[in-house]
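User: Show me an example of a complex going from sequences to structure tokens.

Assistant: Sure. Here are the input components:
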Amino acid sequence: MSCQRWSEQLSAWIDGMLTESERRSLEAHLQSCETCRQTVEELRELKDKLQTIPVPSPKPEMWNRVMRHIRYRARRKRLTVVKPATWLAAAASAVLLLGAIALLWQKPTTSSPKEPTINFIVSYHADTVSLGLSDNPLCHLIATAELSEAEGHE
Amino acid sequence: MNDKTEEFEKLVELNRDALYRIAYRLAGNRDDAEDLLMEALTEAWESFRHFRLGTDFVRWVATIMTHTFLDWRRKNNHYEFVSLDEPREDDEGAEPIDLPEDSDDPESVAVKRAFWDAANKALNELPPEFKTVVVLVDMEGLSYEEAARALNCPIGTIRSRLHRARILLREKLKDWL
């Protein structure tokens, strides 16, 4: 019988990984096959010898370099993660800013001369009224409302 | 440093010999072992939320390391064999090996070193999928099931690759067997 059929089972037999029926068949073959017995001996010796190959010590300071690299990557990752609250604050600021700009561009309505009008002025002046989102850079743009009497304009 | 990073570093510290050993055996030299450790441990840190505390940290990182190693080899087929005896230009000298206690006999030391060199060369010449199985099963003692999980393939594939790898190694190392 050709040994090729048994070849792959030889390693699994050494490792105790054959099923009961595979094991019985192979052991019967090994009784009569000198070539396969020789192969088993060599593979077993090879496996034993591979385990004796030593590993040299790591290069000096290797672990310091490895851990520094991991800490650096960890820090960088933390910095790139933006919390949902930050996104919400940014979105709210953008809405407010757009609202302020829209009001600025709105043409004064034809109101009656006696009716007061409101002019929104976007400015950075110190005497402005904060909208309460000063932590967000977008909210540094402060809208101030200046009430004026329409009659003062005309 | 937060709790998660501290926990991770503690596990690395506790298992660093085993982690380095696997990296060295896969990479084949100290420089590549260091690069492999850096990349695999960084990836392990980033996936640390998936690690179940109390399970085997080394085997978990070994799985990541084998995938990293196989990715490297797929991207860059070049592989350099470094003799254990010959210093590299970018190295401080020969890779130092702690010899076993019975190493007094110079002839026996020379024979062992010659075998280690030949075996490392033969291992590095194996297809990477074969080498990985030999390292995990024959050198690190993983079971077929564990190796199959690490490499995400059926046990039958491990069995077949391992046998073919051993046959190739036997051919290359026949003078030593």
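The lines above are the inputs; the final block is the predicted structure for all two components together. The helical segments of chain B are 3-14, 16-27, 30-46, 57-75, 106-125, 128-139, 144-151, 155-172.
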